[in-house]
UniProtKB/TrEMBL annotation:
CDD domains: CE4_NodB_like_6s_7s. The keyword Hydrolase applies. One of its GO terms (molecular function) is hydrolase activity, acting on carbon-nitrogen (but not peptide) bonds. This is Chitooligosaccharide deacetylase. Residues 47-232 form the NodB homology domain. Belongs to the polysaccharide deacetylase family. The keyword Metal-binding applies. One of its GO terms (cellular component) is membrane. Is involved in generating a small heat-stable compound (Nod), an acylated oligomer of N-acetylglucosamine, that stimulates mitosis in various plant protoplasts. Keywords: Hydrolase, Metal-binding. GO terms for biological process: carbohydrate metabolic process. Pfam families: Polysacc_deac_1.
Length: 241
């Protein structure tokens, strides 16, 4: 039985999917993972899944996702948008308090390839500073959690080099549910499970801002358990600098 991290409590639901293991991710030398964008991904075994949710926090859908994860004692990573965090600070704090990892996804979600370097850098920095001020009161030149995902998976070489120099890891995905398009919970579930089964796991991207995604998550977690998938919770390696 692995030791539990500080603040983590035992799962009250013995039949839950649960979090199989915690993976410490070292970003000291930079990191670019997710085979949709990069040649490499995280060191995951067969049928291991990292759950990631982007673009929130935003009211009811995020709350529903949190409730579904809590019911199954599953930890995920939320790549939050700074202006959403500023609009929903209590919800941001709830995500963190539940033990999920808070990654960063810029302040206003611009597609960085359409911006100059300074404008892109400023938007990324404002994002993590806003989030960290709400969560910790800190306003640093590095985020407390050095995990970042480019809006629209659209990096620029200059911003990628800057993030690497700051020891901030960049996360793409290995697969996603195409939930930004009109869909239904059932259709989305079938799509995600089909892609998961084809790939055998990986970093999964969903968006916690959509009602159809939030409505699908409980069934997804049930199917992950039924199909023998194991959820991996990613956390930053080493002490916060
Ligand atoms: Zn996004």
């Amino acid at each position: 039985m692995p030791a539990r991290a500080a603040g983590e409590t035992a799962c009250p639901n013995p039949g839950a999917l649960g979090t199989a293991r915690v993976l410490s991710v070292d970003t000291t030398k930079g990191l670019e993972v997710g085979t949709k964008s990069y040649p490499q991904t995280l060191p995951l075994g067969p049928k291991e899944v990292v759950l990631t949710f982007d673009d929130g926090p935003i009211g009811k859908p995020t709350e529903q996702v949190l409730a579904a994860l809590a019911a199954e004692c599953v930890k995920a990573t939320f790549f939050v948008v700074g202006e959403q965090a500023a609009a929903h600070p209590a919800l941001l704090k709830r995500i963190a308090a539940a033990g999920h990892t808070i990654g960063h996804h810029s302040m206003t979600h611009p597609i960085m390839t359409g911006l100059g370097f300074e404008a892109g850098k400023a938007d990324i920095e404002r994002g993590w500073r806003t989030v960290d001020r709400i969560l910790t009161g800190r306003d640093g030149d590095r985020p407390v959690t050095p995990f970042f995902r480019f809006p629209g998976f659209a990096p620029t070489p200059e911003l990628a080099a800057w993030l690497k120099a700051k020891s901030i890891g960049t996360f793409g995905a290995d697969l996603w549910g195409t939930d930004w398009q009109k869909t239904t919970p059932d259709a989305l579930l079938r799509q995600v499970l089909d892609r998961l089964d084809k790939r055998g796991g990986g970093i999964l991207l969903l968006h916690d801002i959509h009602a159809h995604t939030a409505a699908m998550v409980p069934a997804l977690l049930a199917e992950l358990k039924a199909r023998g998938y194991r959820v991996v919770h990613i956390v930053p390696a080493g002490p916060v600098s």
